[in-house]
Design brief:
28% of the residues are buried. The chain has a 4-stranded antiparallel β-sheet with strand order 1-2-3-4. A 4-stranded antiparallel β-sheet has the order 5-6-7-10. It has a 4-stranded antiparallel β-sheet with strand order 9-8-11-12. By secondary structure, the protein is of the alpha+beta class.
Length: 368
């Protein structure tokens, strides 16, 4: 009887286990389906992040074609508009972007559109570009004095050579920024819809901020206008302040300039030219060039006087392009073409500055 009871109990237990089996299988299947759905959703959310990562990986190698493949219509904006993607700059920008690192820090996902946030640490080339521009001016002006003007292609080649040399020993000057990348799903693939100015600054170490200055420098070198520094030579200058004493005597953080005298001379074409002498004091903590820091213009009969190249050369003219040690004062000479012997208005300001202060002086030409 006891054995019969045990068999009955075992049979009952087996029946209960069998009845539970379909329920357990159903639960497992539901869990698998849920996890699969969640996994697929996670997969979808990862795709725009992966596309931005792919773009930044290409940026680290300064692979222009690779970056373009990640962007809608392959439009890299100002990188192409400002010719920063030409082969001559490759060596420099590849060295610059090796210093770049990034981290994807955020995602706003909306099915077929998304915004990916990236925190990027990159090389800040501000000081490197200042040095390059200084060398660019010095070499360019020397070329003007010795062999005539340079073509835009020659200017670009000169700048690329200077940057390539600097790429061999870049300082560890890094900065961090956060950029949001808008993305959309197109033909089943995710793509970045726009590359903004912040991204261009990142992958070119802020080179885009210097584009205007470089363009102006090329124009000045080619046309021999003014003194070879960037300036708006075709427009009227700001009115001098009420404290202007009518004599060139200007002080800023970088330099102090005090007018000394003028002389008349002749250029290689036999035309009369004006030689303006001034004392230049370097107020900065490192060597600087008057050519880079000073914007001195001569105006006659309402027109800008072009730079002149006198037959007679002197040390003061050389000092215009020379590296002046910190704290030292030297005599500098700049020369300008003259149309006649009418009064010449000199306008002095700081080059490459948002400071709008302009100092003026009228030089009355006395025929010699």
């Amino acid at each position: 009887m006891k054995k019969t009871t045990e068999i009955s109990e075992n049979t009952e237990t087996l029946k209960k286990k069998k009845s539970r089996a379909p329920i357990l299988v159903l639960i497992i299947l539901l869990l698998i389906a849920g996890l699969s759905g969640a996994g697929y959703y996670i997969y979808l959310r990862e795709q725009p992040k992966k596309e931005v990562s792919r773009f930044l990986d290409y940026a680290q190698a300064f692979n222009v074609d690779g970056m373009a493949s990640c962007v809608k219509n392959q439009d890299l904006g100002d990188l192409e508009n400002n010719r920063l993607n030409v082969d001559s700059y490759q060596t420099f920008f590849q060295a610059v972007n090796e210093k770049m690192s990034y981290e994807i820090t955020g995602l706003d996902f909306k099915n077929t559109s998304a915004t990916v946030t990236a925190k990027i640490t990159y090389f800040d080339g501000t000081e490197t570009y200042k040095e390059a521009i200084s060398e660019f001016f010095r070499s360019g002006m020397q070329q003007l004095f010795t062999g005539g003007d340079m073509t835009p292609a020659q200017n670009e080649e000169l700048l690329s050579e200077i940057l390539t040399e600097k790429a061999k020993d870049l300082p560890d000057t890094l900065t961090t920024t956060t950029i949001k990348y808008p993305c959309e799903k197109e033909n089943g693939n995710w793509i970045i819809t726009e590359v903004n100015e912040d991204t261009i600054n990142v992958i070119t170490a802020n080179f885009g901020a210097f584009t205007t200055e470089l363009e102006e420098s090329e124009e000045n070198l080619n046309s021999l206008e003014s003194d070879g520094t960037a300036g708006d030579s075709g427009t009227e200058s700001s009115d001098p302040s009420s404290s202007d004493d009518g004599v060139l005597n200007y002080t800023c953080d970088n330099f102090t300039l005090v007018y000394d005298r003028y002389e008349l001379s002749e250029d290689y074409s036999g035309n009369q030219c004006l030689l303006v002498y001034y004392n230049y004091t370097n107020n900065s903590d490192e060597a600087s060039q008057p050519m880079v820091n000073v914007s001195l213009r001569a105006m006659q009969n309402g027109e800008t006087c072009s730079a002149a190249f006198p037959v007679d050369h002197n040390t003061e003219m050389d000092n215009y392009m020379a590296e002046i040690p910190a704290g030292e004062t030297v005599s500098v000479c700049q020369s300008f073409e003259l149309k006649d012997t009418s009064d010449v208005t000199m306008e002095l300001s700081e080059a490459y500055s948002f400071n709008e202060d302009v100092d003026t002086q009228i030089i009355q030409i006395a025929e010699q």
